[in-house]
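[Automated response] Your request has been received and processed.

Submitted sequence:
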Amino acid sequence: MALAGKHVLVTAGPTHEPIDPVRYLANRSSGRQGFAIAGALAKLGARVTLVAGPVSLPTPAGVDRVDVETAMEMANAVARALPVDVAVMVAAVADWRVDSAGQKIKKGVIPPVLHLVENPDILAMLAKSPHRPALLIGFAAETERVIEHATAKRVRKGADWIVANDVSGDVMGGTANAVHIVTADGVESWERLPKEEVAGRLAARIADTFPTHS
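Generated structure:
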Protein backbone atom coordinates (compact mmCIF):
# COMPACT_ATOMS: atom_id res chain seq x y z
CA MET A 1 0.00 0.00 0.00
CA ALA A 2 1.18 3.51 -0.82
CA LEU A 3 1.76 4.67 2.77
CA ALA A 4 2.62 1.35 4.42
CA GLY A 5 5.23 1.86 7.11
CA LYS A 6 4.52 5.59 7.43
CA HIS A 7 3.24 7.18 10.63
CA VAL A 8 0.91 10.12 10.02
CA LEU A 9 -0.39 12.54 12.62
CA VAL A 10 -3.70 14.34 11.99
CA THR A 11 -5.39 16.93 14.18
CA ALA A 12 -9.09 17.67 13.75
CA GLY A 13 -12.02 19.59 15.20
CA PRO A 14 -12.19 22.66 17.42
CA THR A 15 -10.76 23.27 20.85
CA HIS A 16 -12.86 24.38 23.81
CA GLU A 17 -11.21 26.94 26.09
CA PRO A 18 -12.97 27.14 29.49
CA ILE A 19 -14.18 30.49 30.77
CA ASP A 20 -15.52 28.97 33.96
CA PRO A 21 -16.76 25.47 34.90
CA VAL A 22 -19.84 25.77 32.64
CA ARG A 23 -18.82 28.06 29.74
CA TYR A 24 -16.13 27.97 27.07
CA LEU A 25 -14.81 29.70 23.94
CA ALA A 26 -15.05 27.62 20.78
CA ASN A 27 -15.53 27.75 17.00
CA ARG A 28 -17.76 26.08 14.42
CA SER A 29 -15.34 23.38 13.25
CA SER A 30 -17.15 20.05 12.91
CA GLY A 31 -14.02 17.92 12.56
CA ARG A 32 -15.42 16.26 9.42
CA GLN A 33 -12.59 17.23 7.08
CA GLY A 34 -9.87 16.11 9.47
CA PHE A 35 -11.60 12.82 10.27
CA ALA A 36 -12.07 12.15 6.55
CA ILE A 37 -8.38 12.81 5.93
CA ALA A 38 -7.36 10.48 8.75
CA GLY A 39 -9.56 7.73 7.30
CA ALA A 40 -8.24 8.25 3.77
CA LEU A 41 -4.63 8.01 4.94
CA ALA A 42 -5.38 4.81 6.87
CA LYS A 43 -6.87 3.30 3.71
CA LEU A 44 -3.52 3.89 2.00
CA GLY A 45 -1.78 1.83 4.67
CA ALA A 46 -0.50 4.55 6.99
CA ARG A 47 -0.41 4.20 10.74
CA VAL A 48 -2.58 7.18 11.68
CA THR A 49 -2.75 8.99 15.02
CA LEU A 50 -5.75 11.31 15.15
CA VAL A 51 -5.75 13.99 17.85
CA ALA A 52 -9.37 15.12 18.01
CA GLY A 53 -10.98 18.08 19.69
CA PRO A 54 -14.47 17.74 21.21
CA VAL A 55 -16.60 16.41 18.33
CA SER A 56 -19.22 13.67 18.05
CA LEU A 57 -17.84 11.69 15.12
CA PRO A 58 -17.04 7.99 14.82
CA THR A 59 -13.37 7.06 14.68
CA PRO A 60 -12.35 6.11 11.11
CA ALA A 61 -11.37 2.49 10.57
CA GLY A 62 -7.73 1.76 11.30
CA VAL A 63 -7.10 5.06 13.10
CA ASP A 64 -5.74 5.52 16.64
CA ARG A 65 -7.68 8.35 18.25
CA VAL A 66 -6.65 10.63 21.11
CA ASP A 67 -9.41 12.91 22.44
CA VAL A 68 -8.54 16.33 23.85
CA GLU A 69 -10.48 19.45 24.78
CA THR A 70 -8.17 22.45 24.95
CA ALA A 71 -5.36 23.79 22.77
CA MET A 72 -2.84 23.02 25.50
CA GLU A 73 -4.04 19.42 25.65
CA MET A 74 -3.81 19.18 21.85
CA ALA A 75 -0.27 20.56 21.83
CA ASN A 76 0.78 18.03 24.47
CA ALA A 77 -0.86 15.13 22.60
CA VAL A 78 0.87 16.17 19.36
CA ALA A 79 4.25 16.28 21.12
CA ARG A 80 3.67 12.81 22.57
CA ALA A 81 2.85 11.40 19.12
CA LEU A 82 6.22 12.36 17.65
CA PRO A 83 8.17 11.28 15.70
CA VAL A 84 5.94 10.97 12.64
CA ASP A 85 6.61 11.00 8.90
CA VAL A 86 3.74 13.35 8.05
CA ALA A 87 1.67 15.80 10.09
CA VAL A 88 -1.62 17.20 8.78
CA MET A 89 -2.80 19.97 11.08
CA VAL A 90 -6.49 20.32 10.23
CA ALA A 91 -7.79 21.31 13.68
CA ALA A 92 -9.18 24.80 14.19
CA VAL A 93 -7.17 25.51 17.33
CA ALA A 94 -8.22 28.53 19.37
CA ASP A 95 -5.60 31.28 19.22
CA TRP A 96 -6.40 32.35 22.77
CA ARG A 97 -7.43 30.78 26.04
CA VAL A 98 -9.09 32.43 29.00
CA ASP A 99 -7.64 32.87 32.45
CA SER A 100 -10.44 30.60 33.65
CA ALA A 101 -12.50 31.29 36.77
CA GLY A 102 -12.74 28.53 39.36
CA GLN A 103 -16.46 29.14 39.92
CA LYS A 104 -19.33 30.03 37.59
CA ILE A 105 -19.22 33.73 36.72
CA LYS A 106 -22.44 35.35 37.84
CA LYS A 107 -24.34 37.80 35.64
CA GLY A 108 -24.06 41.36 36.87
CA VAL A 109 -24.63 44.95 35.86
CA ILE A 110 -21.14 45.19 34.36
CA PRO A 111 -20.00 42.44 31.94
CA PRO A 112 -17.02 40.44 33.24
CA VAL A 113 -13.57 41.12 31.83
CA LEU A 114 -11.98 38.03 30.24
CA HIS A 115 -8.20 37.90 30.46
CA LEU A 116 -6.88 36.16 27.34
CA VAL A 117 -3.62 34.23 27.12
CA GLU A 118 -2.10 33.20 23.79
CA ASN A 119 -2.21 29.48 23.05
CA PRO A 120 0.79 27.58 21.70
CA ASP A 121 1.18 27.62 17.91
CA ILE A 122 1.18 23.87 17.26
CA LEU A 123 2.06 24.13 13.56
CA ALA A 124 5.03 26.43 14.20
CA MET A 125 6.07 24.22 17.12
CA LEU A 126 6.25 21.21 14.81
CA ALA A 127 8.19 23.15 12.19
CA LYS A 128 10.89 23.96 14.75
CA SER A 129 10.89 20.56 16.44
CA PRO A 130 14.00 18.35 16.24
CA HIS A 131 11.45 15.68 15.25
CA ARG A 132 9.99 17.78 12.42
CA PRO A 133 7.97 15.56 10.07
CA ALA A 134 9.32 15.05 6.56
CA LEU A 135 6.06 16.57 5.30
CA LEU A 136 4.32 19.21 7.40
CA ILE A 137 0.88 20.40 6.26
CA GLY A 138 -1.15 23.15 7.83
CA PHE A 139 -4.68 24.35 7.15
CA ALA A 140 -5.81 27.96 6.76
CA ALA A 141 -9.46 28.86 7.26
CA GLU A 142 -9.88 32.32 5.74
CA THR A 143 -12.75 34.69 4.98
CA GLU A 144 -10.92 36.99 2.54
CA ARG A 145 -7.78 37.06 0.34
CA VAL A 146 -7.54 33.32 0.89
CA ILE A 147 -4.51 32.49 -1.24
CA GLU A 148 -2.60 35.60 -0.19
CA HIS A 149 -3.05 34.88 3.50
CA ALA A 150 -2.30 31.16 3.07
CA THR A 151 0.89 31.87 1.13
CA ALA A 152 2.12 34.16 3.88
CA LYS A 153 1.14 31.63 6.55
CA ARG A 154 3.13 28.84 4.88
CA VAL A 155 6.32 30.89 5.06
CA ARG A 156 5.64 32.33 8.50
CA LYS A 157 4.84 28.98 10.11
CA GLY A 158 7.53 26.95 8.31
CA ALA A 159 5.08 24.47 6.75
CA ASP A 160 5.64 22.59 3.51
CA TRP A 161 2.03 22.91 2.36
CA ILE A 162 -0.93 24.98 3.45
CA VAL A 163 -4.40 23.75 2.53
CA ALA A 164 -6.51 26.89 2.37
CA ASN A 165 -10.25 27.33 2.16
CA ASP A 166 -12.82 30.11 2.35
CA VAL A 167 -14.99 29.56 5.42
CA SER A 168 -17.22 32.58 4.96
CA GLY A 169 -20.01 30.28 3.69
CA ASP A 170 -21.13 26.87 4.95
CA VAL A 171 -17.77 25.04 5.00
CA MET A 172 -17.47 24.83 8.79
CA GLY A 173 -20.07 22.28 9.74
CA GLY A 174 -20.88 21.49 6.10
CA THR A 175 -20.16 18.43 3.99
CA ALA A 176 -18.27 19.99 1.05
CA ASN A 177 -15.11 22.01 0.64
CA ALA A 178 -13.17 23.89 -2.06
CA VAL A 179 -9.48 24.08 -1.23
CA HIS A 180 -6.23 25.54 -2.54
CA ILE A 181 -2.97 23.64 -2.00
CA VAL A 182 -0.25 26.22 -1.43
CA THR A 183 3.34 24.97 -1.74
CA ALA A 184 6.75 26.45 -2.52
CA ASP A 185 6.05 25.62 -6.18
CA GLY A 186 2.77 27.54 -6.40
CA VAL A 187 -0.96 27.10 -5.87
CA GLU A 188 -3.19 24.23 -6.95
CA SER A 189 -6.92 25.01 -6.72
CA TRP A 190 -9.51 22.24 -6.49
CA GLU A 191 -13.17 22.51 -7.32
CA ARG A 192 -15.77 22.23 -4.57
CA LEU A 193 -16.01 18.57 -3.59
CA PRO A 194 -17.50 16.46 -0.81
CA LYS A 195 -15.09 16.44 2.11
CA GLU A 196 -14.50 12.71 1.65
CA GLU A 197 -13.29 13.35 -1.91
CA VAL A 198 -11.06 16.21 -0.76
CA ALA A 199 -9.59 13.81 1.79
CA GLY A 200 -8.98 11.08 -0.78
CA ARG A 201 -7.24 13.46 -3.19
CA LEU A 202 -5.10 14.96 -0.45
CA ALA A 203 -4.11 11.51 0.86
CA ALA A 204 -3.09 10.46 -2.67
CA ARG A 205 -1.06 13.65 -3.08
CA ILE A 206 0.68 12.96 0.22
CA ALA A 207 1.47 9.41 -0.88
CA ASP A 208 2.98 10.72 -4.11
CA THR A 209 5.65 12.58 -2.13
CA PHE A 210 7.14 9.29 -0.92
CA PRO A 211 9.01 7.09 -3.38
CA THR A 212 7.69 3.59 -3.87
CA HIS A 213 9.99 0.59 -3.89
CA SER A 214 9.31 -2.45 -6.00
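Summary generated for your ticket: The radius of gyration is 18 Å. The chain has a mean pLDDT of 93.
If you did not submit this request, please reply to this message.
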